[in-house]
Amino acid sequence: MPTRQGSIHLFRLFGIDVYLHWAWFLAAAYFVNEARGYSSPVWSVLECLSLFLIVLIHEFGHQLACRQVGGQTSVIVLWPLGGVAYVNPPQRPGAQLWSIAAGPLVNVVLFPILSILFWLGTQMSGPGVAPDWLTFLRNVWVINLVLLIFNMLPIYPLDGGQILRSLLWFVVGRANSLLAASIIGFAGVAVLIGLALLARDFWLGIMCAFILLNCWGGLMQARSLARVANAPRRESFACPNCRTPPPRGAFWRCGRCRQPFDTFETQGVCPHCGVQYSATSCPECGSLRPFSEWESFGQTPPPS
Questions:
Q1: Of the candidates 130, 122, 107, which has an alpha carbon nearest to the alpha carbon of residue 51?
Q2: Where in the chain are the domains?
Q3: Which of 161, 168, 231, 265 is most buried per CB count within 10 Å?
Q4: Reduced to 3 states, what is the DSSP secondary structure of residue 156?
Q5: Are 282 and 226 in contact (CB under 8 A)?
Q6: What 3-state class would DSSP assign to 203?
Q7: CB neighbours (10 Å) of residue 62?
Q8: Which has the closest alpha carbon to 78: 146, 11, 153, 137?
Q9: pTM, 2 dp
């Protein structure tokens, strides 16, 4: 995934920082150079900027929806393969579903708007060769539609694959839903790789590599979540947020030495490098709360 490292900070809106990865300029130069159908390259630049704007609004849809369900949002990074909204919604299937679905819903809302604009443009133009501005409207309409269709493919980690995972979560739980979505993602990316080879499409091939890596990461995360779900619990503690007792075992990783350890066994001290942590994250809901709150909550019966 792209990060802020090597990215340019563009602006901050609604408390969300927007970054542009350096590789985006390479993709934009390729996109403008390959664009056809215009009498002037200015329209190709405008088309590229429109793609930039559509992706940006899509990512803001994810961010604002996540915030609406009580999640944490911070950064959007735009890069050649689209955009990445760094969101941390509550670990509930409904919250995850809304945070993911809000992105494609932006493209759904844009579809009739762009359709009307293109229709009006066809009514205003005369017969014969379409002017540049009408070609521009048509291409932007196609861009939005292609982004919507591609994103809704049930292939993890595309939005469609994550929506599928959220729906399965209601039925089979967090770990099994991610496992199923990752396996389906492997099957889907195999089809996309075949299409990329047949079409000799460079960008689709790069996208397939990105999807493949994320499917593997999802598979590993699903295995980790399954170990957490099956681990014995420390009944003397409970998460202040979701009230779930923490698992016994080395399920926490030190931020300095990157070694796993059991934070409740060592009272928040990494046994490998000696770093003291005053807050502990919950493996179930992801909330980070002071270690003292876990102790007091575990010793005090929850309100009825």
A1: 107
A2: 1-152, 153-230, 233-304
A3: 161
A4: coil
A5: no
A6: helix
A7: 28
A8: 11
A9: 0.84
Structure tokens at 69: 């369900």
Model confidence over 109-118: pLDDT tens digits? 999 999 999 9
* Exposure string for 115-132, b = 16+ CB within 10 A, e = fewer: eeebeebeeeeeeeebbb
Q: Which amino acid is at 202?
A: F
| pLDDT tens digits, one per residue of 4-52 | 777 899 999 998 999 998 888 887 887 777 766 788 888 888 988 999 9
Phi then psi dihedrals of residue 7, to 5 deg: -115, 155
Instruction: Supply the DSSP string of 9-53, one letter for each residue.
Output: EEEEETTEEEEEETHHHHHHHHHHHH--S-SSHHHHHHHHHHHHH
Nearest to 91 by CA among 263, 241, 211, 233: 241
Structure tokens at 90: 């509550």
Q: Which two tokens stand for residue 112?
A: 């009739």
Phi, psi of 163 (to 5 degrees): -65, -45
Sequence-distant (6+) residues with CB within 8 A of 200 are none
**Coil vs helix vs strand at 276:** strand
d(CA 18, CA 78): 8
**In this structure, are residues 76 and 55 in contact, taking their beta carbons and an 8 Å threshold?**
no
